[in-house]
Specification:
By secondary structure, the chain is mostly helical. The chain is built from eight helices and no strands. The longest helix is centred in the N-terminal third of the chain and has 51 residues. The two termini are 44 Å apart.
Length: 238
Amino acid sequence: MIERILTTSRVTEVDAACMRIIGAYQNTSLSTDVHLAAMFSALEPLSVSLSGSINRITAESNLEEKDEERDEPLRSLFYLVAGFLHHPDATIRAAAEKVNAVIERYGMGITKESYAVESSLVSSMLKDLAQPKLQDAIALLSGCAEIIAALQLAQTAFETARIAYEEEKADDSTQLSASEIKVEVLELVNKKIVVYLRAMEVVDVETFGAFARTVAEIIADNNQAVRKRLNKPEPVEE
């Protein structure tokens, strides 16, 4: 008998199983069955929406990652300059004071600002640090130029990720969340498609048997992976 997709499946797992089921259906000649055709006509756009919602989640996750990667050189810059403020060489201390006067106008607290505010402040700080009058001072502070360059790269990477996120988020207010779409997909697959195939496999195994077995295998593979994941013991902390 065909299993139902476990409701404990992750959104990505449901998405993958759904796409495989649709792909299997498209490889059959069952489109002549009006009942099954209607179900898959409803499932296909849901699958597209589910994949789209996952892309938005991925874009947001990537944005968070790029923000963390930007914060690292930003903090390093403040720590480095702060250390040079106590250097025994007066020339190096003076150079550190010049650079510190610029970055202190922004403060390390900018890492706690919203994405938009932090981006604006980091961009402004990088422009200030690029002023010709500061280059000699920066050159005297070992590692400072490299950290500033790393910060510039991280800022560029963040802005690229932010554009991708905004594009994925466009019209998000009119779209359902991934979890909401998952519920609709499971409702359609488990309570309609699976139930229908169970019945038709008995009534007309010659026509529906092969496809029913394929769907059964797809769902069984998914459920096995889900059960294995859920039964996986937590790592022991040392």
